[in-house]
Fold each of these.
Amino acid sequence: MQSRATKPPEITPDLVLQAYSIGLFPMAEKADQDHLFWVDPEARGIFPLDELIVSKSLAKMVRSDRYEIRIDGDFDAVIEGCAAPAEERGQTWINGPIRRLYRMLFDRGDVHTVEAWREGMLVGGLYGVSLGAAFFGESMFHRSRDASKVALVHLVARLRRGGFRLLDTQFVTPHLESLGAVEVPRARYKALLEEAVSASADRVLAFERIALSGADALAALKAPQRGPAGSGSVG
């Protein structure tokens, strides 16, 4: 009797969130391919939320409010920017299934964008997945000087305000390392992940669309971090 091949389970938004909760995330080889695979790196990149490196020049840029920072304004434009080829990352891994899945997660409130606008144009930003008190940064881009860095500063400020415990960056590049990203072994990451996913964070406080000035964002980086219940420090 000939055995029949088992069709892989359909990747749904719920399956994506379940995967994140145990340390996996989906990727594609190329933008023109339709299949996805799960990644579980031996070393994982994270941004310690109290150790973001903000240079004097970057702090000056943030404080200047040169860029208007918007939250969850235009997901499609952000993922399009992240998918565009760039010299520092080459070809994109963001394919059709990635776009569809994360758009559905965005519509459900599980994906958020931090966007940098200048004179009515989107010039940089990032998007990622929110789960419990963890935020999983997926991709970032810039078309204007320091736009993605300014978006990152605002993201970390908002995560701290909302009592988040973990900012995942998947891998560490020299660019991310210069901003404070570090690698941790898989076992250590899984421990941090379990603690963060099982905790609660204030998504409204973190991702409310009320504008946060650059000065307010920089102040939030120095203020005591809110605990998962909205008070106290996260150890």
Note: Strands lie at 25-27, 37-39, 43-46, 68-71, 111-118, 121-131, 134-142, 166-170, 182-185.
Amino acid sequence: MRGDGDFQELVDEVSALLGTPATLEDRDFRLIAFGAHDSDDEAAMDPIRTRSILTRRSTAQVREWFEGFGIARAREPVRVPADPAAGIHARVCLPVRHRGVVHGYVWLLDDGTDRPLDAAMAVAARIGTLLAAEARAGADTGRELLGLLTGPDSRREGALAALRAALGRVADDDFAVVCVTPWDGGDDEASDPLPGPRALPGAVAVCAVPSPPGGLAVLARARAADTVAARLLESARARGAAAGVSGRRAGLEGLPESWREASGAARAAHAQPRLAPVAHWSGIGPYRLLTRLPTATDPAVAPLLDAAHTELAHTAEVFLDCAGQAGRAAAALAIHRQTLYYRLSRVEHLTGLDLDDGEDRLLLHLALKAARLR
């Protein structure tokens, strides 16, 4: 596959054709390449372009502004007006497409000069061909990753061999799996597109895993796993999602277990706010066990989980979290100790459990924690 140098050459070609610096971003507004800028020419830069070059990405607000002018649907150059209040200069956007699919955008600051945009669009089409080839390669590794994570044993051996061949020497690195959930991987316009490894430095393969447990799975170099999780959660369409990060493993053989850890950690992040937004398998405590258990409610605890008894269930959970110490629990709940005792007596009446009995306490505590995972 061709590399970033080819993209740089094509961006330089656009810049030369039009006599103005151009930048190239993928469809997720991640910077790929940019033309040389004259540091003395203030018109060649604005805060948005400066930030894009320095951080190699744009904010969700910037993306929303530009997409509001229909650039994701356009097949011809789009002129975007300035927004002086936001420090945005007027721009020309050249959609980068291949076979009708948008893969990115070439950007020019618009000074009103007539330029040969037809020739530049021809170069943009060549860029689209390269980006489409990258996307196909990413889809291939994603397909093999999905087979390795969730496929039957008969398929996993072949998926492992294919993924190892695709990654080459990288396959022997230390990896972690990142799970982001929920992630809508459908095909409509409201769905979250699968991000490519280019948009996630440190990631080597990405796939959408159907439910259960579902989510976006990313195979990342272990040292970059936290950064990958954070970048995914920054996405506007990932709002409300949580991420889980597996333990670190050398090579690819342990990836099915890594996926179970990552998806379990993501479930724990949804269940327990203090673990959110990114939970690590090593740090989720009892949820390491609970996420491995079948989803079932103990019949004794079921009445307490009724919506009418939310306050009682919370009281019982805090009391047990405080190791049964009434003073600590009352302080945590900001209630009088006698109120705590009254609520606990109601819990015992509803469940038939004896909170002076260690095994009954264990049953209740596990059941309350497990209920958070539903």
Note: The first helix runs from residue 4 to 18.
Amino acid sequence: MLCTCSTIGATAEAYGARLGVPVLRVDRPMAAAAVAAAPERDTVRIAVVASVDSTFGPTCDLIREEADAAGRRADIRTVRAEGAWKHFEDGDRDGYLDLVARAVDAVTGVDVVVLAQASMADAAARTRDDRTAVPVLSSPGPGLRAAAAAVRQR
């Protein structure tokens, strides 16, 4: 099972393990890539962008878990894409993605930006390259590749 919700990902993994059902969080491969973003230092500086506050805790916890597994430290800053969620709820995809991209463009002093919600993936292409000189990671691509690899291994 591939869980695409960052907020309930940890719960899905826990129940999957308890029931003997393989569960992969779509955001786990992204979190691992974020931790690996600054290989020359023990600490990686990560900005987590979300449009709803409930996503921050689970995403930051996942990044810390991946950092611990890699023997690294994650210095995490959370950035709320103000007003974006209202556009999402209203079905205004362009408005949603534009506000997420604007939040990403305002981030400085980090090694990598993580888009905490799968729905934000297309915002990466809307960031202004001249202002966002760090990788902007999203979960759907790496998550789906990891899920496909897991299926091939079974």
Note: The helical segments are 9-19, 28-35, 56-69, 84-89, 93-105, 140-153.
